Amino acid sequence: MSTTAQHPSSDRFTRRVSAVTILLFWLAQFSLLTVQRWVFGAADDARFHATRLIVTGVGIVLSFAILAFHVATRGRPLSRRLLLAVVAAIAGSAIHAFANFWIFRATMPADVVGGASLTSHLLAMLQWFSTYAAMSGLLLAIVYSGEVRDFERGVARLQREAHEAHLRALRYQLNPHFMFNTLNSIASLIGAGRVEHAEHMVENLSDFLRAGLALDPHEDIPLAEEIELQSTYLAIEAVRFPHRLVVEIDVPDDVQDARVPSLIVQPLVENAVRHAVAMSTRPVKLTVTAAREGDRLRLSVRDSGGNAGNRRAPPGTGVGLTNVAERLMTRYGEDCGFTAGALPAGGFQVSFAIPFTEAAR
């Protein structure tokens, strides 16, 4: 048998609503019976009202028992629970009819109560069945609606967790080639006696990793901070390729505070270094630009290609490009323009446009 987990706050809310419903229901039942007898001329005294109040208390207790029954059958198919609601109504009406007779017999004169028989008990059951059917159905609806709310909340939570896990996986997908090559470069610098350069490279690597891993993958950061991180990364690569990597960054002041997903540019810059700078024997110019286009921010990473030629990987095969495209699609849906391709004059460019937003001041 399957069960449905109930959120504590939702469970308390369901029980509170059910309790109020039960009390109001039986208060209305008591009032209607009293008014009905008064309209038809019944001269009920205080003792009669007190007895009816006791019977009403029995109805309240039975209703709470039916509520507990519905709570205990959570997770079962709705069709079966509807059948069980009818069974609960039959049981409640039978017990109520029996209690009603014996309570009135114990407190009222015999000529008022009348005699007990199977027929009279069945008739009383029929009279009370509609009351308990309504109560049982109402309580089932309240409990079931609570389950539906919990189910929807659970689905939303799972979707949110899956969304966050997907973003986190994409965000922390650090290219192992970068770490391997950087550590090899540090070892080579040390071996060549260039200790000062090695120390500088280690410091840059430490700063880059510390800043990058400290960022929340679900929060956007100012573009200026993103560019600063990429400058640190490129400083590391500049030590590896001192004569081949030429960097140009063009980020106007009016977009410095624009919000962008953290480390969204890093895979694009890394892709250019790996597939252009590392594969070329001539200098490669790597350009990072940002510009505002109406209500959108456009970011571009372009490399001149050098003489990498056929040694360069085919466009679109890099994990970094796929990573960025998926992050943008997950974050903005269709509201982002992502393009990547070779340039007519040589080289490669990746560009995307996202909604322009700035942090509240």
Account of the 3D structure:
There is one protein chain. The protein is an alpha+beta fold. It folds into two domains: 8-168, no CATH class; 172-355, Heat Shock Protein 90 (2-Layer Sandwich), CATH 3.30.565.10. The protein is 63% helix and 12% strand. It is built from ten helices and seven strands. The chain has helices at residues 8-39, 46-72, 78-107, 110-113, 118-171, 176-191, 195-214, 223-240, 266-277, 319-332, and strands at residues 220-222, 245-250, 259-261, 284-293, 296-303, 337-342, 348-355. Helix 1 (8-39) runs antiparallel to helix 5 (118-171). The protein is rod-shaped and about 115 Å long.
Record the SSE blueprint.
Elements: H1 8-39, H2 46-72, H3 78-107, H4 110-113, H5 118-171, H6 176-191, H7 195-214, E1 220-222, H8 223-240, E2 245-250, E3 259-261, H9 266-277, E4 284-293, E5 296-303, H10 319-332, E6 337-342, E7 348-355
Parallel strand pairs: 2-4
Antiparallel strand pairs: 1-3, 4-5, 5-7, 6-7
Question: What would the keywords be for this entry?
Answer:
361 residues, alpha+beta, Heat Shock Protein 90, two-stranded antiparallel ribbon, rod-shaped
How is this structure best summarized?
63% of the residues lie in helices and 12% in strands. The chain is an alpha+beta fold and 361 residues long. The model has no long low-confidence stretch (mean pLDDT 81).
Kindly report how far apart the N and C termini lie.
Answer: 55 Å
Tell me, rounded to a whole number, the average pLDDT: 81
Largest sheet: 5 strands, mixed
Envelope shape: rod-shaped
By CATH reckoning, the class of the largest domain would read Alpha Beta
Strand order of the largest sheet: 2-4-5-7-6
User: How many extended strands?
Assistant: 7
Which structural category do the helix and sheet elements fall into? Answer: alpha+beta
CATH topology name of the largest domain: Heat Shock Protein 90
The helicity comes to 55-70%
Give the second-level CATH assignment, the architecture of the largest domain: 2-Layer Sandwich
Q: For the CA atoms, what is the radius of gyration?
A: 37 Å
Task: Provide the β-strand percentage band.
Answer: 5-15%
Count of structural domains = 2
The sequence of SSEs as H and E is: HHHHHHHEHEEHEEHEE
Detail the poorly predicted runs: none
CATH homologous superfamily heading of the largest domain: Histidine kinase-like ATPase, C-terminal domain
Number of helices: 10
